[in-house]
Amino acid sequence: MSAGLAIQATTDLPSLPIAPWAGLGVTAGWAAATLVAGGLLLRRRAA
Fold first, then answer.
1. Is the CA virtual torsion 14, 16, 22, 28 positive or negative?
2. Quick one: CA dihedral 9, 23, 1, 13, positive or negative?
3. Half-sphere exposure of 45 (CA within 13 A, CB side)
4. Which of 4, 8, 16, 20 has the fewest CB atoms found within 10 Å of its own CB?
5. pLDDT value at 31 more than 90
6. Percent of the chain, pLDDT > 70?
7. Which H or E run contains 6?
8. What phi, psi does 17 have (nearest 5°)?
9. Residue 47: predicted pLDDT
């Protein structure tokens, strides 16, 4: 949740637990991992 909220921040950046660009990277990583896992499950079950 901190990563997602950090993406939206525009003020008081030094007090954030994670930087906005790092938050975007974390969010993109989770999305990519979910897509890969879904693709593997789909391939496995539809074979």
1. negative
2. negative
3. 6
4. 8
5. yes
6. 98
7. helix 2-8
8. -70, -20
9. 64
